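Narrative of activities, Objective 1.

The group set out to show that a structural description can be obtained from nothing but a protein's sequence at a throughput compatible with the screening campaign. Below is one input-output pair from the validation batch, recorded exactly as produced.
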Amino acid sequence: MFGSTVAVIGAGYVGLTTAVCLASLGHRVVCADVDQEKVNALGRGEATIREPGICELVVDGLASGRLEFVLGASAAVAEAEFVILCVPTPMSADGAADLTMLESVVTELRDLLPPGCVVVNKSTVPVGTATHVGELLDRADVSVASNPEFLREGSAVYDFLNPDRIVIGVAGEDRTAAERVAGLYGKVDAPVLLTDSASAEMIKYAANCYLATRLSFVNTIAELCEYLDANIDDVTSGVGHDVRIGHAFLRPGPGWGGSCLPKDTIALVRTAESVGSDFPLLRAAIEANLRHQERVVDKVRKAVGGDLAGVRIGLLGLTFKAGTDDLRDSPALAVAERLAAEGAELLGYDPSVHAPVPGVTDRVRIAGSAYHAANGADAIVVLTEWPEFRALDWPRIAARLGGRAVIDTRNHLDPLVLRRAGLSYQGNGRAAAPREGLELLPIAG
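Output recorded for this entry:
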């Protein structure tokens, strides 16, 4: 016995997660993609992205008969009660979201949609896109809704099934369509916010842009901690205990990246411009992010004597965050590009990157292990917080290095372990000399 019949268009991170999770909730899901090899692999039960829980849900969905993968959007919608659009909306040359693929799919499906179905947009799109989709469809018997995703790569399945909130927006007064979409999540325990489509689209941008601004803020505080001999770990602990602020997104790093934050921040700036407004705070966050990436390069340059030409650098981590194989707009690669531009020879290791990657391996040679990446390196730069880096045999790393410097952009490693191995450790916003950190004492009473 199935729940609703759902077509999911696109089998990327969002589309595949949506498809397998809805199938696990009891719905009949047909997931379409334009990549024949991807469709074939998924049909065999092979996950095409690195994401905890995805492979198991693909296999379970296929075995139960609730999940099917097909080639092309047209093949998915014949019996669909809901058509969920999860197609890419990349950044265009002017920084705005490129809706070409979304518009193409909508036009392709316009005359194929069953009467009464609801077209649901999950792709991150400019405010007003749901209304635009409705105009493209020009079908009075088809509703359009916005149901933005709030998935973190590396925990996307968990986030889908345990969301902080579910946001559903519809154009006009079509509350019935909104309630029908909400019904897809009937087995999920989370607050459901029903609103208009423009507000739903703005919620997604507002959330991502706030998080980006928060990250730029903490990276700037980390920079100040280095100048003022303060300790960023203690500062963020003290700030995070404020219930108005909290601890999330208060970890400094080499800048923010990934498939969402870079393009969404720029897109919202462009949206503001399009209505005659400005967003100087968000502009500053974007500019600060670029400066923080350059600051990593400055640290590496100083650590190797002031000139990167011909210097060998070992990079630990290439993906934009641990737990994923996603290299899109990775700050690690942004730093690598800057190092390569100054003539550095780069050897990088990442647990999820094993084969040559177009646009990456022309400037970073891929190492088979962290120890291989350290061979003859004048410095090691930790750019992604993979747990296995903490467990490395650092005396063994030290024996392979040509230099002593380790620049830990994520504050991921234990400084004492590295110093005991004879290495020169530099964190992000941490004091140059080792010292005791903040201690939390119970309050007597």
